[in-house]
Specification:
Layout: E1 3-4, E2 12-19, H1 24-34, E3 37-47, E4 50-59, E5 65-66, H2 67-77, E6 82-85, H3 88-91, H4 99-115
Antiparallel strand pairs: 1-5, 2-4, 2-6, 3-4
Domain ACT: 13-89
Organism: Xanthoceras sorbifolium
Function: Binds amino acids.
Amino acid sequence: MGSYELGGGQGLKLELCTTDRVGLLSDVTRIFRENSLTVTRAEVTTKAGKALNTFYVRDASGYPVDAKTIDSIRQLIGQTILKVKGSPEDLKPSSQESPTRFLFGGLFKSRSFVNFGLVRSYS
């Protein structure tokens, strides 16, 4: 519990979507490295000033990627711009709610829309 099994041979898929800027890639890969993650593959796309980057990461020691590590990286980079893709929590709903599922499912849904008043309740 508390770690991500790596799907396929490439690692855990993380998707970064944010405004492009000079040094963005080096900052993100430095944060991964400082948290003992190795980037096995990266797909980098920039369109109209927006960066859409996909990273496949592994634990540097070869273990499954720790959920706490990913959560702290998402806190540093930004919950709404760095998302975990294709994780076991995304793929199969489990009967027991794990802390990991709550962290990754709950945090990035709630913030961006409610705070800006974009979601109104019609009752």
